[in-house]
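Request: Not sure, any thoughts?
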Amino acid sequence: MAEEALGSGGARRGAAAGERDEEGAVAERGPGGAYHMFVLMEDLLDKLELLNYGEEALRRHNMRPLSRHYFALPTNPGEQFFMFCTLAAWLITKAGHPFEQPQECDDPNAVISNVLSELRSFGRPVDFPPSKLKAGNGEQVCYVLDCLAEEALKYTGLSWKRPVYPAEDLEEEEITEDDAELTLNKVEEDVAEEESDNEENFIDLDVLKAQTYRPDMSETAKHEEILQSTTDAAEWNLEVERVLPQLKVTVRTDNKDWRVHVDQMHQHKDGIESSLKETRGYLDKLHNEISRTLEKINSREKYINNQLEHLVQEYRSAQALLSEAKGKYEEGSGGVTERIRALSEITELLERVKQETEEKGSSMTDGAPLVKIKQALTKLKQETTEMDIQIGVMEHTLLQSKLKEKSNMTRDMHATMIPEATIGSY
């Protein structure tokens, strides 16, 4: 989902202050407070597995399974926030309250507000700001999902039973010890066989010759021959010293055995008690020194406050006078600003009036318009004379055309009258 961008410097200072508050809260809870979210996340995974979230939630929305520290560590805030909203809506529905599945285009603030209101309706306390859930990770996200998972488990009727421990069988331990003894015997036999196969080992030639010359001897004769050994004692001791390092069998202890853990716990307990006896004296001495130092600091502080009380009063009165002077200065500066603005407006109006007067004065003293008028009159006279000439020419031309037309008409009339007289005489 779209995340809101951070603001300017003020927002960054607020975020830094929030981080310092979180660090202070973790320090108050102890050194293990920083890892509490990891424990919450593992408990949440177990509860989600009991609710079968893989089939009902993940497969429906085509999502991947969660890792052990998915909501404890920041990886992808947008994806983590959408996963948080999806799981929260599914858990609320699983707990018996109808809740609409959020979409990626929904407002994150509205979704977080709805989830927290449902969480409060279950009777769960919410002592953190809603903005902590926008990142999609952190202790608050794990806390909200863990509470909703518990409510869903309660609604489904899942109950926890006491663990049943199997009874320990003593006979099996005895059999195991016997097997261990047999194993040691087998190890000794294997070592003896390896020594007999080694070329550097000692070989009794007399026994070998007796076995070679009498291969068909009965078993009783063999036992007697073994009992009546002709081996030299010094050579036997030398052979034992040579083979002794190879006959040593070391049995490794199993670190998973509970007895080893109990022994280690007792050893650590004794070490802690011995170290505590030595350290307690130093800690008591340090405590006494710190207490005396704090008492001295408190007494010095009281003495300084008593000695400087009149100076503090003077300082307070000076601060009051300073605040009054600042108020008067602000009032005076406000009046000056208004007067400066009025002065600027009057100055602009004066400049505009000056410019208009200068334009009118220059137009009154300038003879250029008169010259232009005279030139225009001269030009009009010339054009009038030319028009008169053209009119006279046109009248003359018209008179000539009329006279010509009249003469033509007279000639035509005479021409028509002569033939008629001629025709009458014939």
